[in-house]
Structures are given as structure tokens and as C-alpha cells.
């Protein structure tokens, strides 16, 4: 499954389908209090749902990153130094009301004159670069391997087995979603008429007396079953199921379609020297291309402007690099995107993408090493398969088969739920004592999406990585003399340790000590990070 743009069905929808190193001491909340705090049992308020990643574990009993506390008690009115964060992702809506003031501009480039004014090899790269051109939908990497027909490829047999399994699975998903939607449509008509409203919830359905009406009784049973899976109301169920069906169809029509050819850039993706392709238009090509905009908002949505959301970092410029399609990214695009970010002044790179097949992984590792050599921190999403990355290779990475790292500025991030305790690790999140460094908020995150004033909630390690990139930007802004290596160590050492067993991969029978899921054994904490950074300046 593609790691950043898989079908990230809600846990409810998934149920429907499956049923057919130590560091310096940090002066903050006493560590001994963390595992004895009362667990939050009441539902999150609407405000908490939209801001939980910024809240404080002790004050709010929610495993956020203490961002609000960091601003109130440490940063206050100190803006710090501007930090450039490159977001390698899908397109970003740079005209969004909550992002238009935080977009990086290449001051050496004259817009739309068709000339490479700064002679960096990219014409009119005013806000970044688009390595995809007009492309958005793409195959998965293992489908591209099969499409070559080269059975001598060492990955061919594995790719074929995975393809056969995935194609059959998604055909089955499509059938089930269509059936659920059809059943819900019929039931909804009767229930809405009976209740005389169209926005009912499970409690409303339970008030219906339908013993003498067989059709209504059947509708009530269907409504209770579907909304009983956890949907807030019938409209939420319709939205989730329709979005799921759309994602399933995209998977079958594009990602798993061996005959589909999405790339239209005119270059050879297997030739790293074939450059100059793409263009300077970093905007999404359609509304559903929302991933990059959501990620950018988590990092840097304009703070305290009375709109939408607050980003983690307060003095950031987002460099938009469009290189991640709806499908698997090409290694060439990612390698060149990393080098573009480094060469054009980025101090932090956010990479919320990934895959399990990478024919040119060496190109990407070389680029990661290049970033490290140039004092650039790379924040990487761990992936959404619930896999142990110490056992299964995931790309990009900064090492081969758990071997030596090519640099010391690569940070891989797992995802947390807004629920402290045994269920705090997101069921989809990958993990690994060697290959995952830290955990941060990544499930149910509210942020910007394309459209001048639009926002939505999404989940994935794709959302956890930019949370950490935002904290890293705060550190580099407030303490600009710290190196990328030091910033990584601050993130690792200053987090909050969790000394309990947690559910892994969403399987209640699979519990592990939280400390065994990452190298740092901690969840990132902005408040602690700034305290520790102040001791290193």
C-alpha cells in the first residue's frame, strides 16, 4: 500500500471491511507523574479535536506536544529567525487564507518571464518546483515493476504476489462499499421521513418505533448497524463511505492498473542526469490533491490570525516542492527534490511519503546524505501499514538493512492518537526500535486543504512528520546556532517517555512496551525541546 496516500479509511470503515540514548535532564513536568495521571474518559470538545496536537499531557490528559505551553511560557513574543521548511509532497495551495503569508518566495527569480534568472537550473521557480508537471494519478512502484514485463528483476516475483493479493482485495472492497452505500441510501430515505430530519444520529434512530412496519424496521436495523460502527451521524457515514469508494476506485483505476501511464513530464525516470523537466506551478491540479496543503498547514498555518488553525511554528517560510503523486513517487523526483531544497536554502525538509519498493533507492540515500552534509534536517513519515520497520524495509531511509546511517540528520516519525494510555499509538503507524526515532500526534489532525478557506481532518504518519518538522523549525528559529544534528538530538532526548505497554498495529492482542517502538523511546514535546535547546546554544 502506498504509504502517504493509501486509502486511509477511518477505523470504522475498516471494521466494516474486515468484518466481511539518554540525554540532558529537562526541567519540565516531573517524569514520574506522567504514568500516574488520570486517563481522559470524556470525549474531546470541538476545540480539542482541532488542536489536540498542541495540547499538554499533564494539563489536558491528551498526548499533545505542549506547543501552546511552549508559546505561553517560553517563546512569548519572540519571533526568532525565519526558517525555510521544504515540503516535498503533492501540490500546496499557496493562495490559501491560512498559508498565503508563510510561503517561500525565491527573490532572485522574476515571475513568469520564462528565464532562469538565478541560474539554478529551474525556470520561474518562484515558490518552489513541480517535478510532476500536469501529472497526479500514478501507479504503485510494484505495479510499474510488473508493467516492464522483466521477470529477471529480483523484485518481480514479490511484486506479482503482492499485486494479485491487493487487486483481489480492492475489488472486494469496492463491492462491499457499493453495497453498504446502497443499503444506507434506502434506509436513509425511510428514516429521514420518519424523523422528519436528515441529520440524525444513532440516538435518534433508537427512538423509532417500527414493530408494525417491516420496511421501516429493516431500515432501522441497517441504520443502527452502520451508525453503530462509530459514525457521528448519518451525514458523516455518507461522507466517509463515499470518500472510501472514491479512494478504492482510484486505487483500481490508477494505482493498480498495469496499463495506466500517468507520467507526462517527457523525461526518462531511470536516468538521473535527464533533468530540466517539470515547471514552477506548485499548486494542486485538482481539489482532491489535498495532502501537501494539509501537511503545510500543520507546520506553519499562520498563527493567531483568527482563521482555521495554528501551525506549530511561528516564523517559517514553506518551500513547496511537488513531487508526490496519487500513487508511488519516482525515486528520481525525490532525489532531485531533496537536492533542490538543500541548494535553495531549506533548513528542514518534510517528507510525508514512502513505499516498500525502490529501484533507485541509492539515488535517494545519496540525496539524504547530501542534506546531512549541508546541515539540513530531514523529517520522514514512518508509514501507515502497522509494520515493524526493523524487519521490513521502507523507503526512503538513511541506511540499508539496519546498517550504518548515511547521515545523522534523518528523523523518522510514528503517529499517536489523541488518547493517552494503551491505545495511544495509532493502529496504522509503523514502528521500529532501530528505524523509527520518535512519535508525535498523527491521527485525526485538523489542518488546511485546497480552497481559499477550507479545512479538514486527516490521519497518518504523514501528519505526524510535519508536527515534528514544526517543532524542529521552532528550535532552529529560536536557537539558530544549533546544527541539524543537534536539533535531531534535542528532539530525541527531550520527549516524554511512556512507561506502559501499548497496543500495536491496532491489534488488542499485540501489546508492546512503548519504549520498544522507537529509538528515543519518547513522544516529541515542544516545551521540553526548547528548554533543552536553550542549554545547548
TrEMBL record:
The active site is at residues 89, 291, 462. InterPro entries: Pept_S8_subtilisin_bacteroid (IPR017308), Peptidase_S8/S53_dom (IPR000209), Peptidase_S8/S53_dom_sf (IPR036852), Peptidase_S8/S53_subtilisin (IPR051048), Peptidase_S8_Asp-AS (IPR023827), Peptidase_S8_His-AS (IPR022398), Peptidase_S8_Ser-AS (IPR023828), Peptidase_S8_subtilisin-rel (IPR015500). The lineage of its organism: Bacteria, Pseudomonadati, Bacteroidota, Flavobacteriia, Flavobacteriales. This is S8 family serine peptidase. One of its GO terms (biological process) is proteolysis. It comes from Formosa sediminum. It comes from the Bacteria. One of its GO terms (molecular function) is serine-type endopeptidase activity. Residues 80-494 form the Peptidase S8/S53 domain. It holds the Pfam family Peptidase_S8. Keywords: Hydrolase, Protease, Serine protease. The keyword Lipoprotein does not apply. PROSITE patterns: PROKAR_LIPOPROTEIN (PS51257), SUBTILASE (PS51892), SUBTILASE_ASP (PS00136), SUBTILASE_HIS (PS00137), SUBTILASE_SER (PS00138). Belongs to the peptidase S8 family.
